[in-house]
Amino acid sequence: MATTYLPTLKQLQYLVALRDAGHFGRAAEACFVTQSTLSAGIRELETLIGVTLVERTRRVVRFTPLGEKIVDKARRVLREADELGDIARSAGRPLSGEMRMSVIPTIAPFLLPRILPRLRKDYPDLKLFLREETSAHACESLHHGRSDCVLLALPYACGDVETEILFDDRLFVAFPEGELEPPMPDAVEPEAIDEGRLLLLEDGHCLKDHALAACNRPELRAESTMLGTSLYTMVQMVENGLGVTMLPEMAVTAGILDNTHVTARPLHAENAARQIALVWRKASPRERDFRLLAEVLGAKP
To answer: Taking every annotated instance into account, which residue ranges of this chain make up the domain HTH lysR-type (predicted)?
Structure first.
């Protein structure tokens, strides 16, 4: 009987790492092996299946069309292999073992400092590895198996996922102190926002889309100046009189305006909030863990 040789998980890991990094050296670093070890592993894989997966030149690593298909299949195989361990962990203690969570930048610095101490205290056996990524990259990491779950803001199309809503996070308008005539309004109407002075995060941050949708003013999308890569940058620009911006309530509550001369008031409009949610891949064997984690993340202090 002929012997059938199957690709190893290590070979598939090398292939996926090379596709993600686009460079043999960086892929080897990601896999904690030497470049020669990674290159040899991929050549063994090509010899095993009898096809060329990667075209190698001095400057460029280019995957063949068949190589791209093999990479997609390899991602699924590796993800399912990871889930074998998840099945065993799910039968043990809740929220234990390793868990990789992606978090978007407009949530991570404001929610996690409050939540992480509680997680460490109540679930000491949980090893939580965090990745801060924009929504698009976070959802890609989820579906490629680099992350187990994602903490993000809805609405956002993250693909075919399970979702647990944690809470609503209202939007606030931030402006320099003294800009509005007293008495200070309890809330700001969208019509009161000067489209020529609105400062928003650059493309890739879903908060920008949530803010524009809440205002329901198409001209804001055309006129607003996209400048900052972080909410902290936006606050500094507002303090220096360059305009007004939108902030989520969790950032205001966490003290982003402390020691500044910036004031914030809620935006008075329909849908003037984003929904904070935890999402994970459908049919994950760790669904119980994710729902328990959602309870912890959504709990009031």
So the answer is: 7-64
